[in-house]
Structure formats: C-alpha cells, structure tokens
Amino acid sequence: MIQIKHLTKTYGAKRALDGLDLTLGAGVTGLLGPNGAGKTTLLRCLATTLAPDGGTVSAFGLDPADRVQRTALRRRLGYLPQSPGAYPHFTAFDLVDYVAILKELTDREHRHAEVRRVLAEVHLTDQARTKVRKLSGGMRQRLALAQALLGEPDLLILDEPTVGLDPEQRMAFRALVSRLGESRVVVLSTHQTEDVAALCERVVVMRDGRAVFDGTPGELAAVADGRVWLSDAPPATSELFWRTTDGRYRTLGAPPPAADAVAPGVEDGYLMLLGEAA
Amino acid sequence: MSDWHIPDDLRERYLEGRLEPALAMSVDAHLGRCAGCRAAVPYDEDWLEASWARLETELITPRPGLAERLLRHQGVPDHLARLLTATPTLSRAWLAAVVAVLAFAVLAARAQADLLPAFLVVAPTLPLAGIALAYGPRVDPAHELVAATPMSGPRLLLTRATAVLAVAVVLAGLASPLLPAPPGLSAAWLLPALAAAAGCLALSNRLPVPVAALAVGGVWLAVVGAGGLAAGWPAVFGPAPQIAYGAAALLLTYRFHKVSTR
Q1: Stated pTM of the model
Q2: What is the ipTM of this complex?
Q3: Are the Cβ atoms of B144 and A106 closer than 8 angstroms?
Q4: Which domain holds residue A91?
Q5: Does B142 contact A75 at a Cβ distance shorter than 8 Å?
Q6: Partner-chain residue, chosen from B77, B82, B144, that has the shortest CB–CB distance to A98
Q7: What superkingdom heads the lineage (chain A) (predicted)?
C-alpha cells in the first residue's frame, strides 16, 4: 500500500534519510530509533508536509510529488505531528472543527457529528468547551490525536503519540490504535519499546536515516537471545547493564559470573542492536 | 410505588393526542417514573438519535464569535466564515492592515499634500504585509498540522489572501478621500495593489510566502519609488502604467491559478 524507495533528505551536512527503502501495509508499524535517526523526517515525508530530496513515495498508488495526487493523498491521511502546535484561545471543539473544515468536511451537521465522534474516541467530550490553554499536556495530546482521526483516514501517521499520556491513557490509546490498525495503515514513531511490544505487528529500527531492522517485535527481542543475564553483582566488562528494582543486575552481552539467563524483551533486542547509540 | 400501569386504551388516546391536558400531564408524570410503561410507548429510534445528537452538539459547541456571525449574516457559507475568522494568523494580518491604513489616514489628514506620493507608493504593499502574515510555518503555530490537510497550500493561501486583500483594499479605499488629491489619483494605488498581491501569490509557488511578499514589496518600492522620483509621479501612476498594472494582475492571477491546480 505504501512504497518508499531510495528516500533521501539532507539538512545541511546531516543526512536525515539515506536511501531508505520500506514497504508498509495494513496494521500497526512502529518506528524505533535514537534521536536524529530520521523517524520524524520519514513521517513528515509520508504526511506530505516535507518534500524529500530524492527517491519516491507511493501511497495507495498516489505520488505526493504531484500536486493533484498529493491533495488526493491528504484526503486519505490523518497526521499527528511531533509538535502539533495549537491555538490556545480555541476550545477543544473549535480546534477539531477547524481541522475538519480544512479536511473538506463542509456540511455543518455532518462535520459536528464527526467532531463529536473523534472527541468521544479520545475521551474528551467533557472538555469540548474547554480552552486549549487550560487542557493538561495529556489532554492536548489526545486532542491532537482526535483531529488525526477525522474522516476515518486510511493512513494514520502518529509521531510520538504517547508523549504526555499517563499509564491509563496509554492503555486506552493502545486499545484505540490497535483497533484502528485492523483495517488501515498505521505508522507511529516512539521511544517507548513497551508501546511497540504492546501494539505493533511490525517494528522498523532506524539509525542514521536507514532501516537497520525490519521485523516483528518478537524477532527484535530475539536479537538479544542468549545475551540477557541477571546477576547479583555488576558485570566487570559489559557496558550495557542496569540495576533492576529487585536489586539484581540485568546485563546485555557476555554473561557475568554466576548469572542466570533470562528471556529477552523488545527493549533488550533494541539495545543489543543499537548499542550505545540507543 | 403504585402497581398501577397505563391501560392500553388510555395509552392509545395519549399517543393520538386525544387526552385532556390535565390527564395527558398525569400520563407524562407516570411515564417519567415507570420504566415498564415507557417501554410500551413506541418511538422513532432515528429521530431520537438525531435529537440527542443535536442536543449534544448544542451543549458542547461554543457560540461563534461576532465576526463569524457577521460573515454568516452576509451570506458567507458557515465553513468559510469559520475558516476566515478562526485563523489566528489571519486575525493578526487583518489587524496589521487596519493599523497601517488608519495610521496613513491620520498622517494624511495632518500632513496634507506632501504625503500623497508616499501613500501611493506604500499603499500597494499593505496587502503584502497581510498576506505574509496569513500563511506559513513561521506565522502559524499549527502549520505542520494544517499542512497535511487537503485544503492547505495554494487553496488555503488564496482564501486567506483574498480576505486580507479585501479588508486592506476597503480600508485603504476609505483612507483615500482624506488625501488632498483628485479621487482618481488618490485611488491610483488599487491596481498596483492587486498586481503586487497576485505577484506575491504567484511567487509563493517557489518561495515561502513571507519571502515572496518581501521580494515583491522590495521590487515595487525600488522600481516605482525610483521611477516616481526620477520621472514624476504621473509617469508611474498615470493611465498607461495603470493598464500595465491591471494586465499584470490578471496575468499573475492566471499563473497562480494554473500552477496551483496543476
């Protein structure tokens, strides 16, 4: 459905995307990677807000480089930017209503019904008349998510959607996104490996503008197979270890003395893959 | 609670609206506290759902502002009125145009004849200032979010620019009679203003809007200002140049439209 070929984007001397190739289909795909890996640049190219320097993107057979096809693609996408910005004096309802107009929902009754629907989806109906400046960070993030859901888009692009959400809200978000991913293409970037493990069928790890891993969360965890250990004493050599809440040391890499092997998680695989760059 | 329930014949007469008001009110009161009798009253599910939806919208929809209500009253479609009045950057653009033109009017009334050439040269750049403030990542805090919608780009820019231009033209037009010159000459800024705005829009296909506005404004001030000083003001605002400004406005608008819809 979405084909990305040899995509490049450069900011000055920095190559944000370096000949990236990727194909995305229905379901939830998570992008993981350290800061500066190119996740946001990729999502902006997909969302048609940034033109790549080279390569092509084709979404549902539409080419965003062509103005007419770009507009057609925008009719089918919902986008939550990393920094959505906001008009603080708007009410929550006004903000979503405004974006709904920009999404060409011109009939007032239909538009308002859609605004009500998406506000209910993110549990903000009770805050509909509250000014944006009075909403908490988590509520603003949910409001930004609400506008992305307008018009039931075929392609949903979410850049760090769980930032600012408390654990309960994150659970609700996961339920919502996994439901949406049943029938559409959802791409999200995150630093939270738990989110990837919980709701993504596929994970792409990026580094320096390239995809260095593409597979299921289970396959990412398997990268650290046989290399995760728990020990009572800190390792003498490994640099990838930390003290857990039960006072033991979790080590990635060579086993410390008297260590127990443990099953790896997505985070272990990610850390193993990227090492200190993570 | 009573064991009494509404008999079938009474319910039938109630539904047909054949009960005396006092008896109908008694039935209403009973329905309010008896779920069993309520369940026996048929209702139109679609109608009920639509009514609840309308009620909910009424409760959570903020009242439109004065400007939006005025535009709607003048026949502007609901969504367009909202689009024009809700954009913070556009409000600022309008404010910039209002302040600049009113300042001109006050200065004109005070300084009299010497100010006419300056007014004619500067007035066409006022809409440019407004357009520069109407669209783009530097002036719109939610630009990234807006930019991914189908209305963004030239369509939104044109909508906002038209609104800015209309306000600037009307206000500058109101200021014109305050100037000590024949009406024809004091309104000679109008076609140049349209040409400058169209040039800015056409250039915005290649440059960010504020840069395009600065470029067009700079070229206008340099060329026309220098030309006016060298050859006299009628040479740059007379009938022949006016035809050229009008033709340029048409050509550039066509160019913008063509590129925007390509």
Answers
A1: 0.79
A2: 0.88
A3: no
A4: 85-151
A5: no
A6: B82
A7: Bacteria
